[in-house]
Amino acid sequence: MASMLALVRHVPAAVVLAASVLPAVAADTPTFVDNALPVLRQRCGSCHNPDKKTAGLDVTSYASILRGGGSGEVITPGDAAGSHLFRVANHDDEPKMPPDAPPIPEAERQVLKSWIDGGVLETKGSVAVAPKRVEVAMAAPATERPAVPPMPGRLPLETGAKTAKPDSSTSLATSPWSPLVAACGQKQVVLYRTDTLDLVGVLPFPEGRPHVVRFSAGGGLIVAGGGVGGQSGRVVVWNLRNGRRLCTLGDELDIVLAADVSPDQRLVALGGPQKVARIWSIETGAKLHDLGKHTDWILATAFSPDGALLVTADRAGNVFAWESATGRDFLTIPAHPAAVTSLAWRGDSNVLATGCDDGQIRLWEPENGTLVKAWPAHGGGVAAIDFTRDGRLVSVGRDKTPKLWKADFSQERALAPGADVGMSVAACDETGRILVGDWTGELSAYAAADGGRVGMLDPNPAPLTDRVAAAEREFAARKTMLDAAVAALAAAPDAEKLQAESAVIDLKSQVAKAAAEQARWFGEVAFQAGYDRLAKTLADRQAAVAAAESEWGVVEAKRRTDDQSLQAAAAKRDGLQQQADALATAITQAEQQVKDLAAQLEKHKAEMAQVQSGLPGATTEAETAAAAVAEATKAADERKAAIAARQAEADALAKELDALQGVAP
Amino acid sequence: MKRGLFARCSKASSTPWQTSTAGDVDARERILASQRRLFSPLSAGAVVLVSLLGLAAEAATLRVSPPAVHLSTARDRQSLVVQVVEPDGITRDATLSATISVDDPTKARLDGRTLFPLADGDTAVTVAVADQTVSIPVHIERAGQHPDLSFRLDVMPVFMRSGCNAGSCHGSARGKDGFRLSLFGFDPAADYQRLTREQPGRRINLAVPTESLLLTKATATVPHTGGARLTAGDEHYATLQRWLEGGAADDPGPTPAVVALELHPPTAVLDGPAATQQFTVLARYADGTDRDVTSLAVFLSSNDASAKIDRDGLVTAGGRGEAFVMARFETHTVGSQVIALPENLAFAWTPPAAANRIDELVNAKLHTLRINPSAPCSDEEFLRRASIDIGGVLPTSAEYRSFLSSPDPDKRARLVDQLLERKEFVDLWVMKWSELMMVRTVPNQVSEKAMFLYYGWLQDRIEANTPIDTLVRELLAAKGGTFTNPATNYFQHERDTLKTAENVAQVFMGMRIQCAQCHNHPFDRWTMDDYYGFANFFAQIGRKQGEDPRETIVFNSGGSDVKHPVGGRVVPPKFLGGGVPDVAGKDRREVLAAWLASPDNPHFGRNLVNIVWAHFFGRGIVDEVDDVRVSNPPVNEALLDALARRFVESKYDFKQLVREICTSHAYQRSTRPNETNAGDERNFSKGSLRRIRAEVLLDIVTAATATQNKFKGLPLGARAVQIADGNTSTYFLTTFGRATRATACSCEVKMEPNLSQALHLLNGDTIQQKIRQGGVVKQLLDAGRSPEQVIEELYLRTLTRRPTEKETQGLMEIIGTDPTAGTPAGLRETLEDGFWAVLNSREFVFNH
Q1: Same domain, residue pair A194 and A80
Q2: Last residue of a domain, one of A461, A477, A509
Q3: Residue A507, Cβ neighbours under 10 Å: how many?
Q4: Is the separation of the CB atoms in B296 and B312 below 8 Å?
Q5: What pLDDT, in 10s, does the model give residues A400-426?
Q6: Which residue has the higher pLDDT, B589 or A10?
Q7: Mutate to test the interface with B, among A171, A209, A257 (most CBs of B within 10 A)
Q8: Measured between beta carbons, which residues in chain A are less than 8 angstroms from residue B217?
Q9: A444 touches chain B (CB under 8 A)
Q10: Has residue A665 been placed in a domain?
Q11: Looking at the predicted complex, does its ipTM rise above 0.95?
């Protein structure tokens, strides 16, 4: 365990905070992330969120708000008066938002207006800092006792103001390997030792009211889920040793009702009235999975001790088991007849117990979801259950009586009934004690061995100044009594001297105790002051780092932009240059062609001249020849005519002959 | 101007519409006594006399409410309302302008118009307006006590007031987003559990109460679909915050219940739109204390157009009309009448003659509303109207002639008497009662024999003019076989206990208590306890089969009970609006019947006279007749009360009631409106146009055409009103809205005209065939009548009047120009066409 804890570096919480939310640096133009988003989330997010998406509009992210909703875009960048979103928020247009309520405060409307008019910037243009990894992972789930019990160092005990009454105790958790118990208070989680019942730490939870608190399986982390009912929900993870925050996860629109941390300390599961369970990563601070099968509020969620499964339970009685690594659904446990208020795993991961509002506790075998055992535990409803290390069960319910069940689940013992309905229970294995919280806010500690009450815890401890004042008063009172007793001793007759002496001795020890108590509280005050001073300096330094980083971010962004311009200009120039080169080549080629053609032209002209010079002579020859031909033709014709005449004579003779011979022609 | 009338009315006891609550017989007596005081004949007579003589010259009177102030414990307070009642009846709200002072300032202090206690003792408050002063006694006790906030008394009313437990919000059956409150707070114990312990740690924050979801959602600090219902820091927010700071505790023991609620002032007559009147609400508790709950009550108006009431009880007048403004607190609703008149209305009241008490009361209301009634109808109109309403017949032409020509000044009263003696009158009312008793066959449940015996029993009783109370008692307590004692059929056709109880309440008391089966009635005073207490009277009806398989024996099984669904407990039988009788060892139905049809049950008489009134006027004094509830008051309470009282005193003499109604001038008004009553449909200022109901219409068509009908189960020539079985009908009857009698609702009989009806008369086979078969025209022509005489006869038979010159001329013209009219057959056909036209006219189908 020590080696594992040594891996936990003291990562300043503010740095990890910077991973998820950029601090608002003073700027001219409002941005979405810094200015508009908080307003939109608070005032609009209950209906216009990714799960519910009323009218198709989701305002919780930059991309989706620009995309708009079912009737189109809602933002015209640069023109708030013309943007539908601003107009309905300002009650200029129907439907007036928020519906059936007065408009949101003027200041918030101004924020939206200036954001839209300023051009709907998303962030300051800074590049998000790469989230630093939080090294808290354990190599394997802790099922063995660690060498050093995970106890906190000295933690500050300063609380917010003490309220007149405590609120109902919604959750108790005990550390698996140390005598510690954590309880929910008003905007704080209080840590007590279960052996001495002393207050050992107060962890502030300014996000609202913590509703559920859990220790990790190795005992090194405390996780608390809560928020402001109807408005926001967060889960905070603290490092137990130094009480400093590791991260704040979750972004719910209503209080977180159920939360748990995985045994390997890498995952947090949370759920609430939004009906969707979510798994977030502690290392990166990002959401990993949404588990959306539930139809009603998620009231309980628990990782199995071997880390393989996550089980979630809701108000309609549905219980689902999921693979914690992938978020895929694994098993559906048969539905319960009433709301399932609590879940608990036995240490060997073989039995899952569910507490239901019908009063029964049911045990399930998680591989196939078969029911192992069911018995009526508390009339009216079971409120909380917890397993001990040796497989016994403790439970509380609406019958006000906490009960302890044996390993075979028959009733071992019923503890003394509380003042009102029981709400939370935790078994401390280190001290063998059972802690019970009820509706009036009373936290009682019982011994499991005999069921006797051993003490009460105060979920609402007084601030240090009050403690100091009370201790001083007590000391002063005792001192006065001691002085009186000393005086009485001096004045006492001999018969009573012995009595008076013993009285003085008693009082002296009481005074000593009161002095010690007073000194203790003085010491706490001093410690608190020193702690606060150092914590503040640390916070300032971290803020400075963050500021420097964001400035760097701004400058870096500018440099990048300029670099891009440069690239663009260079590219343009190169392009033009190429064009110029290509054209030059083409021109050269064309000129060469022109030269060749000119040469050909000359050659043909010369040939033409030659031919034309011989032309007249040839013409005269032709004429002479033609005359000769004409004469020859004439002679031929004459001869032809003579032939014709002779032939005609011959023919006439022939005819005469024929006639003589009497032969028909 | 009858100044005296209104001054007297205003000074007399205040709220005729206060209803007493379950179990509080004394309260009922008190109220009925106050009403008697208001409307005793002597005082009214004195008023009329005084005003006639014009002797009274009364100035405006001052009315301060409440008339006495009781403050107990330091948290109590009382707001005052001052009203000036002018002699002409107009009221003015002087709450803010009056000078109010406390006689002894050490005992009580005045902040605005609200009194707060300072020290125990008695003092008085003086209210002065102009020259009038009124002194109101103030009694203060336990002024030093600061009691803790109570969940039931202080926190629950905030939920109702802010609308949290309304039916559209968390009061719905499944609540909203998993948070459910009982509808209008009928289950405070469960509401407490749900609010504090159903989702522990979620809805309330005991450490920092202002961060509780209950408050942050109610003020819409966090998103809330229901909007902002409270404002941070206002009175109701502070109540919830203080309750949470005290640890969100439940009441340690039972808390006193509200026994009565009063709304002050009881009436207001507002002059002109934008006139206002402030109201204040007083709740009286069972421990004798009272409490100003104006800031906790929910206000409603029955007519927003005439009078709107806002969240703080301020009424603003609107257009002319009458409204009933109501305040609702816990399970009680109470109302006041508000009349809005046009500003400075110039109105001349022409006092109409009054034939009897009915007229006096109707006219009084009209006077208040500044409406002049229409003139009386003509003799012809009266003859037709009375014949149809009383007997379901049309007068023959002979009857017409004799009535019109009679010089007797009392001939109308004489006609009424004659009609009352006819058998048709009995038939008509047996039919109406059959509808109320749901006389019909039900396959495998009520055989024809049983149904006929049931009908016969009813007919016997009504023919013998049995007093209605005797009849109802016999019916409800009936035991025996359905053949041997036919009245037991009432329990054979409806076998479900709860439905039987609902039917009895709806028919005999005029109240629809159905809503109260699952939650307190949202608009009336009935709680689930009332419902199950009443239903328990019918839980011990045993049924077994008789020797004849069609016969059922109804007996008293004595033993079972109906369980209240919340907690499964048994509510002992309790009269609706009455007390808890001793039913040990007795037949519960007998006990119920004895109470129901007795003067101890004021609703019985009122309901019956209302049913009869509705028959003659087309609209009851309470409309609908089976929807009597606090939020639906009678338009003229004095009239209904007087009629009911008379009816009861006359031992439920039905004929006497009909006689009084039909001889009143109110019944005999013309349907023609005048300029003051043109917009009034509710106050009987003029005759009402009513479509004639199906059976009567078929009968008069049959009679006018001298034909006969054959209905199943009846001989030829029987009339439609004599059909016993609700399941027997014809196309004509169904089209015209005959009741199937499957339910006891008054809406079974449909009187609205519609297109199918018009088409059936025009194109269907009823009119055409009857004209042809009956041969009336043929007979008249054969008897030697001329066409004009035939036309006149036809008009007399159907419209009970002679045709006008124009009508005769028009018809004669058609005959003259018709080429076929020369022959006898052709003439007959043409005249039959005229007959057809008259039968299709609206004047025939409507009662006017």
Answers
A1: no
A2: A461
A3: 19
A4: no
A5: 999 999 988 888 899 999 889 999 999
A6: B589
A7: A209
A8: 230
A9: no
A10: no
A11: no
Query: Cβ–Cβ of A230/B224 closer than 8 Å?
Result: yes
Q: Determine the length of chain B.
A: 848
Pairwise CA distance, residues A372 & A359, whole Å:
17
Cβ distance B260 to B283 under 8 Å? yes
DSSP string, A230-276: TTEEEEEEEETTTTEEEEEEEEESS---EEEE-TTSSEEEEE-TTS-
Closest-CA distance, B153 to chain A, in angstroms, reads 23
- Return the beta strands (E) in B684-733 as ranges: 690-691
Q: Is A294 within 8 Å of chain B by CB?
A: no
Mean per-residue pLDDT over chain B, rounded: 88
Residues A98 and A209 in one domain: no
Q: Do B448 and B713 form a contact (C-beta atoms < 8 A)?
A: yes
Of the three residues A117, A147, A180, the one that is the final residue of a domain is A117
Residue B73: what residue type?
A: T
Give the Cα separation of B1 and B53 in Å (integer): 11
Sheet-wide strand order for B99-102 = B69-72, B132-141, B121-129, B99-102
Query: To the nearest whole angstrom, how far is the Cα of B213 from the nearest Cα of chain A?
Result: 6
Predicted confidence band at A142 (pLDDT cuts at 50, 70, 90)? Answer: low
Residues in a beta bridge with A59:
none
- Per-residue pLDDT of A492-520, as tens digits, reads 888 888 888 888 888 899 999 999 999 99
Contact A167 B205 (CB under 8 A): yes
**How buried is residue A163: exposed, middle or buried, by Cβ count under 10 Å (0-12/13-18/19+)?**
middle
Instruction: Give the residue numbers spanning the domain of A37.
Output: 26-117
Are A167 and B208 an interchain contact pair (Cβ–Cβ within 8 Å)? yes
| Structural domains of chain A, count | 2
Per the CB < 8 A criterion, the answer to whether B280 and B66 are in contact is: yes
A237-274 confidence digits (pLDDT tens)? 999 988 888 999 999 999 999 999 999 999 999 999 99
Listed in sequence order, the residues at least 6 apart from A508 whose beta carbon sits closer than 8 Å to its beta carbon are: A482
d(CA A91, CA A74): 15
Residue B220 contacts residue B227 (beta carbons within 8 Å): yes
Mark whether A217 and A312 lie in a shared domain. yes
pLDDT reported for residue A134: 55
pLDDT given for residue A22 in this prediction: 38
Q: Do A180 and A51 belong to one domain?
A: no
